[in-house]
Specification:
CATH superfamily of the largest domain in chain B: Beta-grasp domain
Largest sheet of chain A: 5 strands, antiparallel
CATH topology of the largest domain in chain B: Ubiquitin-like (UB roll)
Order of helices and strands of chain A: EHEHEEEHHHHEEHEEEEEHHH
Strand content of chain A: 15-25%
CATH architecture of the largest domain in chain B: Roll
Number of domains of chain B: 2
Helix content of chain B: 25-40%
Oligomer: heterodimer
Structural class of chain A: alpha+beta
CATH architecture of the largest domain in chain A: 2-Layer Sandwich
Number of helices of chain A: 10
Radius of gyration of chain A: 18 Å
Distance between the termini of chain B: 44 Å
Shape of chain A: globular
Distance between the termini of chain A: 55 Å
Strand content of chain B: 5-15%
Helix content of chain A: 25-40%
Number of strands of chain A: 12
Number of domains of chain A: 2
Shape of chain B: globular
Structural class of chain B: alpha+beta
Chain lengths: 264, 171
């Protein structure tokens, strides 16, 4: 399996970008938590793998107003944002377990394809609510666009970093998972911007993260909860039925809005 | 490429995408890390990489060139068990033993970073480790005992010394 594969370990962002090229037939390896089982079980037989292990994309930079997260930053390090971006830090601590949070990368989590048996992309919710800008390279060169746009056409692109403005307040609410698994069943993030705008997004509604725009536009938390259900196509998987998600999504939306209200 | 495994420098010839688990078990003959789910979910393959617990099944060996790898063989020797190994013995924290090496290495790292005997904190630190004998109470007992600084007389078992939570209620 691995003998015929060209495996590259670039030692700088520039080298990683050059080796990724137009992204054709390249498998990007971040922490390995998603790609390695695919190789082990023979579901993936890449001809070329670019590992970001030593590419220096594991940076976390914050100034007075904005935060930039390198694609290869271990998920666990988002805990450092606990004071400034509470929801993102809380969401990160809700991802899997101690070891996986240290090994999995922000980029890998965000770019994970939609899960079938369980939702993936735990961090998509908070980063969508934060309106993160994604900087990536690929066949069309370098581009910076909203994470929402990036996620819609991420195949063949290498995510470099994510940047967002620090919010005035943020809140995160998730369904507790039982001891037997560590997946995000359903989670909602709320962000209050410096300008007073409220943004909402969810992870786990169906295998991928979604902005809850109808809920944002609703007049009160009760209406927002009801509207959120109309924002999404709710999934039915091993962790929760569509019915269960329909019952719990409004609760999480109301909880997040109440928390934002308290923070104001 | 090179790895230091339990303090001994080793040459590794496996391809860079080979999992650390396969390198340890198949190439280097270190068989304490177990191949459980081989997709990161069970924790049985966990080893310490530069002192932090990591899933050997998810780690391409090429990504950790030059690293210090520690398995349970590196914690102590049969005639001089580490405090955690003594605690696991004393508290009967191993049943079938399949999860034990992963549990011990995650617990060792937890204790090294100053972990206390708080049972919830221990549970959180071991959250990625599944014991299908469901022997969690005694595993947490053992980790808590080391965090408290208990000493162990291995000629006396925990049960006969009346030190376990027989009767339950505390999990």
């Amino acid at each position: 399996m691995t003998q015929a594969t060209e495996v590259l370990f670039p030692t700088s962002a520039e080298e990683a970008i050059a080796q990724f090229g137009d992204g054709g037939d390249v498998t990007v390896l971040g922490g390995g938590t998603i790609v390695m089982p695919e190789l082990t079980y023979g579901r993936l037989a890449p001809s070329k793998v670019v590992s970001l292990a030593r590419a220096g994309l594991d940076t976390l930079e914050a100034d007075g107003t904005s935060v930039t997260i390198g694609a290869a930053l271990p998920i666990a390090r988002l805990a450092e944002l606990a004071d400034d971006v509470t929801a993102l830090a809380q969401c990160a601590l809700n991802v899997a377990d101690y070891e996986i949070r240290r090994q999995g990368t922000v980029g890998g989590n965000v770019c994970a394809g939609a899960g079938h048996d369980a939702p993936r992309g735990d961090l998509q919710g908070p980063l969508l609510a934060l309106e993160a800008q994604a900087r990536s390279v690929g066949s069309a060169g370098e581009a910076t666009e909203s994470l929402e746009e990036f996620l819609a056409h991420r195949d063949g692109r290498l995510l470099l970093d994510l940047t967002f403005e620090k919010p005035a307040a943020s809140a995160f609410a998730a369904i507790d998972y039982p001891h037997t698994h560590e997946y995000t069943v359903l989670a909602v993030t709320g962000v209050r911007t410096a300008g007073g705008e409220t943004r909402l997004a969810a992870t786990g509604v169906a295998g991928y993260g979604t902005r809850l725009r109808a809920a944002e536009a609703a007049g009160d938390p009760q209406q927002a909860g009801a509207a959120a259900v109309g924002d999404v196509r709710l999934g039915d998987d091993a962790l929760a039925s569509t019915w269960y998600r329909e019952q719990t999504l409004p609760v999480l939306v109301r909880r997040v809005l109440a928390e934002l209200e308290e923070a104001a | 490429m090179n790895l230091t495994v339990n303090g001994v420098a080793r040459d590794v010839e496996s391809a860079p995408l080979t999992t650390l688990l396969d390198v340890l078990r198949e190439e280097l003959g270190v068989t304490s890390p177990k191949a459980g789910c081989e997709q990161g979910g069970c924790g049985a393959c966990t080893v310490l990489v530069d002192g932090e617990p990591q899933r050997a099944c998810l780690t391409p060996v090429g990504a950790i060139e030059g690293a210090q790898v520690t398995t349970v063989e590196g914690l102590g020797a049969p005639e001089s068990l580490s405090p955690l190994q003594q605690a696991f013995t004393h508290h009967y924290a191993a049943q079938c033993g399949f999860c034990t090496s992963g549990m011990m290495l995650a617990a060792e790292a937890y204790l090294q970073r100053g972990g206390t005997d708080d049972r919830e904190a221990i549970q959180e630190a071991l959250a990625g480790h599944v014991c299908r004998c469901t022997g969690y109470v005694k595993i947490i007992d053992a980790v808590a005992a080391v965090a408290r600084g208990d000493s162990f007389d291995l000629s006396v078992t925990a049960a006969s010394a009346g030190m376990t939570n027989l009767g339950g209620g505390d999990r």
